[in-house]
Write a structure and sequence with these properties.
Elements: H1 21-35, H2 41-56, H3 60-70, H4 74-89, H5 98-114, H6 121-138, H7 146-153, H8 158-176, H9 178-181, H10 185-201, H11 203-220, H12 224-237, H13 251-258, H14 265-277, H15 282-292, H16 295-308, H17 320-341
Helix pairs in contact: 1-2, 2-3, 3-4, 4-6, 6-8, 8-12, 11-12, 11-13, 12-14, 13-14, 14-17, 15-17, 16-17
InterPro entries: ARM-like, ARM-type_fold, Exportin-1/Importin-b-like, XPOT
Subcellular location: Cytoplasm; Nucleus
Function: tRNA nucleus export receptor which facilitates tRNA translocation across the nuclear pore complex.
Length: about 350
């Protein structure tokens, strides 16, 4: 059968906004053939050329979007998501009118809400990357509803929690991290715009959601993988969020309890270390380090590890003390530096 998929434009040049069954089958065959390294070279080359032509077409994105939401093939989902990522990266999406932008936003988020919990991780990661690329262009001006809708989506279960955390991780990796933001002045401006929008609209609710994910694991012992991911995400966000959102009477006891847990100590100590090294004026930093009060928990961890030593392990697991000692050592060094700066030492 032919590997060439039909153009999203009809013969008379008018737009074809939907695929018929035969066209969709040709599109899927072309994508599957493009992934098949063992296929006939001529057929595969024709399929690749046809797909490149589709991506370049003015309305090709509609074809990709429709293919994404209708296919059962992981390869077609991934190819469609990647094609849409390329559309945004090429700055073609930024030129979309309000109606086209809204269609893409709405369709992608509706697809996210229908994504099964057991969807392939590489599909979920690529979806998260695409959403973040659109956020970089549109938030908060043209997609102010994104984060409120993402937070509301959390109520749909464990698959939603997983996607929520993947989106937050991708947001850091693709845009908000110092490394990502420093790639260009344009990227830095976008990162600052998104951070400012989040501070006004959603970051408090996002941190509360991370706390709820962690507190559930502390309460039930279940879903530790999501708790670990939430700790990882929180450590990424601490450097730029209001410190009071995390350094408080709700979060700190939870973090210190996780520091003694074999599966969670690394993430908890990562958050505590970020809290210690967070940029602040010296006097405020010294007060903040004292508030963290890490020493009593370090003593408790040392005692617990000594109690476990003869058996070589136990429910809490080893290693928590080392990570906590790192956070405490960093706190001590920070306190000394602050005191020296203020002339107290």
């Amino acid at each position: 059968s032919s590997s060439r998929c039909r153009s999203p434009h009809a013969a008379d040049g008018t737009r074809r906004h939907t695929m018929d069954g035969a066209t969709r089958e040709q599109f899927e065959q072309a994508v599957l053939l493009s992934f098949n390294q063992g296929a006939d070279a001529n057929y595969r080359s024709a399929a690749l050329a046809s797909l490149e032509q589709l991506k370049a077409a003015p309305d090709g994105w509609r074809f990709c979007l429709e293919g994404l939401v209708q296919t059962a093939h992981a390869e077609v989902k991934f190819w469609s998501l990647q094609a849409l990522c390329e559309l945004v990266l090429a700055k073609r999406y930024a030129a979309f009118g309000p109606e086209d932008a809204a269609q893409l936003q709405h369709t992608l988020f509706a697809w996210l809400e229908r994504t099964p919990a057991d969807e392939q991780p590489f599909i979920k990661n690529k979806l998260a990357q695409l959403l973040v690329l659109i956020v970089e262009v549109d938030y908060p001006e043209r997609w102010a509803a994104f984060f409120p809708r993402l937070l509301a989506f959390l109520s749909q279960g464990e698959g939603a929690v997983d996607l929520f955390l993947r989106v937050l991780s991708a947001l850091h990796d693709e845009l908000l991290s110092p490394e990502a933001a420093s790639r260009s002045p344009e990227r830095l401006a976008a990162a600052n715009r998104v951070k400012d929008g989040l501070r006004v609209q959603a970051i408090g609710s996002i941190i509360e959601a991370l706390f709820a994910i962690m507190a559930r694991t502390a309460r039930t012992g279940e879903h530790a993988q999501h708790c670990r991911h939430a700790l990882y995400v929180l450590a990424l966000y601490v450097p730029w969020v209001d410190i009071a959102l995390v350094a408080n009477d709700s979060f700190l006891p939870l973090l210190t309890s996780f520091a003694a847990h074999a599966g969670l100590h690394e993430g908890a100590c990562g958050v505590l270390t970020e809290l210690v090294v967070k940029g602040m004026e010296p006097r405020a930093k010294l007060s903040h380090v004292v508030q963290l009060n890490l020493e009593p928990t370090l003593h408790a961890l040392a005692h617990a590890q000594q109690a476990r030593a003869p058996g070589g392990g136990g429910g809490g697991g080893g290693g928590g003390g080392a990570g906590y000692a790192c956070a405490t050592g960093t706190a001590c060094a920070t306190a000394i530096a602050c005191a020296t700066t203020m002339g107290c030492a």
